[in-house]
Amino acid sequence: MLSFTYLDRRKLIYMDDIKDIIDEVKARNDIADVISDYLKLTPSGSNYKGLCPFHHEKTPSFSVNTSKQIFKCFGCGAGGDVINFIMRKENLDFMDSVKFLANRAGIEFNTNLDEKTKQRLAKIKRYQEMHTEAARYFYSQLDNPNNPALKYFLKRGLDVKTIKRFGLGYSPDSWDSLKNYLVSKGYSLEELFDAGLVSQNKNKTNYYDKFRNRVMFPIFDYKSNVIGFGGRVLDDSLPKYLNSPDSELFNKRNNLYGLNYARKSIGHDKTLILVEGYMDLISLHQFGIKNVVATLGTALTDNQAVLLKRFADNMILSYDSDDAGVNASLRAIGILEKQGIKPKVLNLGSYKDPDEFVRANGMNAMLDRIDTAIEANQFRLDSLRKSYNMDDKKDVIAYIKESSKIVKRIKSPIEKDYYIEYLSSITGTNSDIIRSEFGMTFRNYPRRDDKKPANTFLHRPQKVSVVEDGSKFIELNLIRAMLDSRLVRDTVPLKISLEDFSDENSKKIYEKVSNVDNKGIKVSKDGSIKLEDVYSDDIDIDYIKKLGRVKLNVEFNDLNEVDKIINSFMRESSEKRLEELFKQQEILENRRKTIKNNSQEAKEVDLEIMEIALKIVAENKTLKKF
Hints:
The protein is of the alpha+beta class. Helices cover 47% and strands 12% of the residues.
């Protein structure tokens, strides 16, 4: 039998199913993270692109899809999951690749298990089956007309379909109903106690049900295995909420409620919403908002953030608005940022939680609040401001000094400038004074209302003195022209597509400005767009600086001049395509020399060579037009 163990907070967890083993290894090795160890990946929409490591190319054709956890090269055809990548890159067979990735994730891989380990593996499987039986029992109790749980769920606004989907149930007001049921299914009292489903009296002479007279919420791991329960009282007894105790099967610090559903509804923007309670999550789910997870009675932990990073790049926090909730949000923001997740904070106004808000206002209002969630740094500054009196000059100065610790940590110069202006607006302090306090200068961080020419963002000389790459320079010229002229923006999309650009930064700006009227980007009276209005964190600041230095001495009202810029770009793009076709042709011709004549493989290669030759002819005709 093949299995592995991994050390998690000094507790060994075991698996005995080969499919589960491979799934766990893949889950702990995000494909983009693994591939980034071998080549540079750049964002491309919801995916990533890079130069293929399996064949020589200058234009990236290697794509990584993080939602599906697969890669594909559209140049050489290589593709597969993270294991396939390691097999090719490290030249390993399947099992050695699984071991390689297991070692990378800190998993101790074992193929020879002793008898004790086999017994513990069997125990874990048996406990999972035990919890499934318990969940079925609790759910079946809703059919009992004498229990109050169904009335509670219906009063909270849940429909029968939602109750069934989440497997909600009821633990009877009895000391031994679940105990007797599970014993009748062949489980021992010792097993029930060890799994946390029953408790023991002080004298250790008797066992009794841990959950009594509670509405029950089965807790699933992200693969939809029942691993524990949460129970809420229906009377005034304490504790109000009760979770399964930590065990080899369940650890509340390592799991998240609802992740088994949320991971399937995460969307292209890879955003999850983090709430505090089961009912918040279930209510949002019933209203059609399904990318929601909840902590299990604890503040967000580092281990939970690591788990979330497997599925999400963005996180919207929805905690209580009291001091405890604000502090929990601030702590969660730091934990999420450490894992590379971008957090925002939901503002529900006077409503106490998402459940109350969505029932009062509906799904569309909730989606609007999600879309306008507060950026993490603004939330930090707003939370800090509550400790100061903005009508007291000394407090304002103290607030600005303390705020500098937040703003100085911001890497993006555009975002940093935005928050300096934000601080200026909420404190009534001149932004140049704030920059001075932060050790910055006005020239390095131009204000949005600066009276420079419309096409100016960074200081640039009148001439470009050095051209590092001719094709990149031509591409920069075209993007610069699109920013400077409405006519160019209207003309370029008719002749040039997104795929014609080689630089990912150019593609991002092209997408933003090619249909500017529908994207809310500010356009000056002369038809130009400022660089700061199209800049975002996913665009390389060095690219922005180069673009800012481009100076075009062109009369944009002259269509002939505009055509010259476009044709220059199209000619360069055509030459690139020809170069790539000639390389492919050479590779195939060299391969053909090694193949026996009249074989099926020879016929297939000859056909490919012919197809490329036809493409070369067609591309030459295109090139002559320019």
